[in-house]
């Protein structure tokens, strides 16, 4: 018996016969600006599933624990069940998006130091930015967990940067989420890493290879994601 456990903007999660294993289905829907802009694109679920599979497999190969178990169809993965830590972690190498607006710095400026930001995961509130004190006072995570999350986020950044660099792509920024395994309580990388949750620019031309093409009406989303997948397939 498989029951729908949760439906998000881009994925659905189903139970399996194993209480510690869930099935994720990648949907064709795309949203932006906290769901205010919506569309559906044939092939998006397949593309994000393939891209995320490639990334999680690469990260696990580098010793970074993730919830990922296996890819079982064009649009489905099996993952370990977790309790999601309600913090969205954004890592930035180059100024773009909300950072550019907030600090009045041009998009494209390389940061002297990588920035790690925390946002409180709440659709109702539009995911407000928080600092560690807010996270602790709201009991979203413990001090040890926050330190581990920060370390983890920086090692994911190192691994992803090298991976995309090999494909001629700059990792501008990305958002990740963490979870505590239902089975053991261990902290692992959860959710997804895909062009929905990263900014990826061609190294030479700065062509955007991520969801900004949809957010800003720049190019066709499936064509863009297909181009990205092709380039990642060439990376060993
Ligand atoms: P931002 O510049 O809009 O704050 O976005 C930073 C990065 O986080 C960018 O790669 C897109 C990603 N992101 C998400 O994955 N989900 C979100 O809800 C938001 C706001 C950003």
UniProtKB/TrEMBL annotation:
GO function term, MF aspect, one: phosphoribosylaminoimidazolesuccinocarboxamide synthase activity
Residues in coiled coil: none
Keyword Nucleotide-binding found: yes
Superkingdom of origin: Bacteria
Domain SAICAR synthetase/ADE2 N-terminal span(s) in chain numbering: 4-231
Entry-linked Pfam families: SAICAR_synt
Pathway this chain belongs to: Purine metabolism; IMP biosynthesis via de novo pathway; 5-amino-1-(5-phospho-D-ribosyl)imidazole-4-carboxamide from 5-amino-1-(5-phospho-D-ribosyl)imidazole-4-carboxylate: step 1/2
EC id: 6.3.2.6
InterPro entries the record matches: SAICAR_synt/ADE2_N, SAICAR_synt_PurC, SAICAR_synth, SAICAR_synthetase, SAICAR_synthetase_CS
Keywords: ATP-binding, Ligase, Nucleotide-binding, Purine biosynthesis
PROSITE patterns: SAICAR_SYNTHETASE_1, SAICAR_SYNTHETASE_2
Catalyzed reactions per annotation: 5-amino-1-(5-phospho-D-ribosyl)imidazole-4-carboxylate + L-aspartate + ATP = (2S)-2-[5-amino-1-(5-phospho-beta-D-ribosyl)imidazole-4-carboxamido]succinate + ADP + phosphate + 2 H(+)
Family, as annotated: Belongs to the SAICAR synthetase family.
PANTHER family: MULTIFUNCTIONAL PROTEIN ADE2, SI:DKEY-6E2.2
Official protein name in the record: Phosphoribosylaminoimidazole-succinocarboxamide synthase
The organism of origin for this protein: Sporolactobacillus mangiferae
């Amino acid at each position: 018996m498989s029951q729908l456990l949760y439906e998000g903007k881009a994925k659905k999660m189903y139970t399996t016969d194993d209480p510690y294993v869930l099935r994720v289905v990648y949907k064709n829907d795309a949203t932006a600006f906290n769901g205010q802009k919506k569309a559906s694109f044939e092939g998006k679920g397949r593309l994000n599933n393939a891209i995320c599979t490639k990334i999680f497999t690469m990260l696990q190969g580098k010793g970074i624990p993730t919830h990922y178990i296996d890819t079982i169809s064009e649009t489905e993965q099996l993952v370990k069940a977790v309790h999601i830590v309600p913090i969205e972690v954004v890592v930035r190498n180059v100024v773009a998006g909300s950072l550019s607006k907030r600090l009045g710095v041009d998009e494209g400026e390389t940061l002297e130091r990588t920035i790690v930001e925390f946002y409180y995961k709440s659709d109702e509130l539009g995911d407000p930015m928080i600092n560690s004190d807010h996270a602790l006072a709201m009991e979203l995570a413990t001090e040890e967990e926050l330190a581990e999350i920060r370390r983890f986020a920086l090692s994911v950044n190192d691994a992803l940067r090298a991976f995309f660099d090999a494909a001629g792509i700059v990792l501008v920024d990305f958002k990740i989420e963490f979870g505590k395994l239902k089975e053991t309580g261990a902290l692992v990388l959860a959710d997804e890493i895909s062009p929905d949750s990263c900014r990826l620019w061609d190294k030479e031309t700065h062509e955007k290879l991520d969801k900004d093409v949809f957010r800003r009406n720049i190019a066709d989303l499936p064509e863009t994601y297909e181009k990205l997948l092709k380039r990642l397939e060439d990376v060993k």
